[in-house]
Amino acid sequence: MIENIVENMKTLVNELKESINLDILDIKEAKHEELLKRNDKKHFIIDEITRLKAELNKELIKKIQEGIDVNIYRDSVDSLEKDLKELYELNKKLASIVMPVQQLYKDLVSEITAANGGRIFDIKA
Fold it and tell me: Which residue windows are coiled coil (predicted)?
């Protein structure tokens, strides 16, 4: 059971890493609609990883309570942890690209509203 949970989590983590890599490419190529298409799937994957993490913790606790040495799962759990760290670093890379773009848009809106007396649109009837 624990091995299956870890393998399912690793598969989902790899899918998420692939999706983030595609996001990075699409941002660089200004294909913003492609980002939106993947958003729902990424949210589902994140929710599923979170659910599986809770399930993994329950199963490990159950094994400990049964007196089983959970170190037998050490290699697979360590491998999962490595994959999660890679996902974290990849997500940081994505954020380092997205945050400056977000700031650029924020600055543009601020400049436009300042030029129009605090309004984005200067409507004259």
Answer: 46-97
Q: How many domains does the chain have?
A: 1
Q: What CATH number should be reported for the domain holding residue 63? A: 1.10.132
d(CA 91, CA 114): 34
Give the Cα separation of 52 and 78 in Å (integer).
Answer: 16
- Asked, for residue 122, whether it belongs to a domain, the answer is no
Residue 121: what pLDDT? 56
Quote the distance between the C-alpha of residue 5 and its chain's center. Answer: 19
How far apart (Å, rounded) are the C-alpha atoms in residues 4 and 72?
Answer: 14
Q: How confident is the model at residue 32 (pLDDT cuts 50, 70, 90)?
A: confident
Domain that holds residue 86: 1-115
